[in-house]
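::Encoded backbone::
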Amino acid sequence: MNSTLHKIDAADRTVFGVLSEQKYTVDYFQREYSWGKKHIEQLVTDLTSAFLDAYSPTDARSDVEGYNTYYLGPFVVSSQGGMRSIIDGQQRLTSITLLLIYLNNLQKSSSGTEALAPLIYSEKYGTKSFNIQVEDRQACLAQLFEDGKYQAKPVDDESTVNMARRYEDIEESFPDELKGSALPYFLDWLRHNVVLVEITAYSDDNAYAIFESMNDRGLNLTSTEMLKGFVLSKYRDSERESANNQWKVFIQKLHKYDKEEDQRFFQAWLRSQYADSIRQSRAGSSNEDFEKIGTRFHSWFRDNLPKITGGNDRPDAFKNLIQTELEFFGRCYTLIKDAQEKELPGWEHVYYHHCWGIAESLSAPLMLAPLRSTDSEDIVRKKIVTVARYLENFTVLRAINFKRFSASSIRYTMNSLVKEIRGKDLASLQLLLASKLEQQSEKWSGLKEFRLHGQNRYFVKFLLARITGFLEQQSGVPTNFSTYFVTRGSKPFEIEHVWADKFAEHQDEFLQEHEFSTYRNRFGALVLLPQGTNQSLNDMPYDKKVEHYRKANLWAQSLHEDAYRNNPNFINMAKRHELKFQAHQVFKKADIDERQRLAQSICEAIWAKLSTPE
């Protein structure tokens, strides 16, 4: 019997050691890349915060060697016949690869020369191959590496689509203060100071045994578990067991959403109610309350007890904290999580913002911030919805004006807003947030020029679905936003261009093809149609398409004169909201301009005063 088959090795290795000119396959058991936006944002935040906590602009590059080491966790490989297959850990390794590709593109744009390519791919006999080898993902990785963007195709699998989206999330969440002179320092630190533990088995049986053991039992106490230990140590002996049982039930409720939801809750709760200081957005600034809660909230809690318990270290203070404050905010947090799953009556704006909004690490503290444990259920709902509605206003206004709202660019603004709205009564909250919107530099007039481009397809579909759902609900049609935005069944709704892509048919209005393409992509020239229907109409001229639109949703149907016959609910809705709908016998530049203005009016009707229910 080959004794090597029973051997297991473990070694700590830097990111450089793990990825530089290495080759891994991904075991079929682990094959899908499934990290969501919140996971990738947390990774970027954790890494950049840990680096910035050590970095000073006056340091020499060689000083990075003495910076803190960051532990990224273990991964398991099965090594057989010269091939290494990832059994556990491909989510992190794939995410690190995406981050490295982004950083490589970032440094190329600033004439950087750091050798990141060997950590991403290797080349043999003139052929490139990526260090994590999954055939279906190669085209996506190659285009991200070369161009920094990838347009998903209908034939792409779930992992490929997800990788493209997570790359965009990295672009949005990477902090601006690391894009200048600090970048080479960060690249050194990431390659040589970030450590993983590689566990190598030499048979699949041993590899799976390790995988199951790690996932069944876990390896380290989490921040939640360490916080629990500290809090329970403050209880009277006679009350500790009851408090422990209450804590376990509470955590189990959170784990129904995600196995790490407890940690996200504590970060959101502590930031919403107790955090005061924020790291300044410049290189060399130190991590403060908001950042420390994001990395080691159990330590921050212990170090800031006077702020949390009012200086009272007696058992009754901790009992009140757990049985009143924690219980209340935990319940409110689960209400938010439930509302993010689907359109619930009275909670719709929480769902809308979840589909298109700022990072959860910023939005969750904001929605919890104005709450008080004495608030009624109705006041709790109204406060949360008011904040969600403000956030939707904020993000939609930014998007139609082609402004980004990445976590890194708005982090300071949103964390400052947490402090401003903390504990506000409903009327004061509404007035404050309405004032913030009035002061926002982006206005609804941005819709006059708004158009579809390669990087905003998801948002354009969101906006079309919001407009279409609003028009139909206000007209008594039993549909909603989810009807058009959420993929159900085999025919999801897709963006349809009213104009076919035929420049020759529009040369009476355009001299240049790029001018035609710009107008063709304008929002007023777009509708939503079921997949298949839009493809069958793709090349038709407008006079043929519009006959099909009369059977479609109201935003498309309103192009046809039949929408204005025997349709009193639609007509009354248009009058009620002062919307200047009209049929279009032909569809020229002027008609698109008219539809742009109409879309602006609809948006202004949807996102009216914060104190007015939709």
